[in-house]
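Design request, tokens follow.
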């Protein structure tokens, strides 16, 4: 009985220590998609739009396969980027782009 209690106690302290170290060293706050859109320069959005149109079929959800690379999910409002036209991007000389700041939060990709 005592041995089982000690094992549970070890697990509890181990998980607590990992959580504490995570908060201490890795306590980075995640940014939202809107913050990413607000801080991305217009030229970068234009390049991203071209890449999305060129490699549309390659943008997939993350997966892990031993024989292939790990791909990541793009945290941009893809629909909005694809709707951007060159004229509105050239108008954006200020940083961050006021066109993007007025948008609502992006919808999650499905």
């Amino acid at each position: 009985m005592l041995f089982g209690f000690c094992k549970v106690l070890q697990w509890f302290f181990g998980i607590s220590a990992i959580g504490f170290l995570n908060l201490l060293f890795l306590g980075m706050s995640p940014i939202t998609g809107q913050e990413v859109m607000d801080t991305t320069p217009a030229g970068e959005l234009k390049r991203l739009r071209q890449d999305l149109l060129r490699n549309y079929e390659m943008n997939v959800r993350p997966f892990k396969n031993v024989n292939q690379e790990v791909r990541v999910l793009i945290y941009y409002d893809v629909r909005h980027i694809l709707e951007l036209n060159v004229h509105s991007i050239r108008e954006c000389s200020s940083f961050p782009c006021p066109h993007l700041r007025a948008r609502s939060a992006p919808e999650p990709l499905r």
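Comment from the thread starter after seeing the answer: thanks! Residues 18 and 24 are 10 Å apart (CA to CA).
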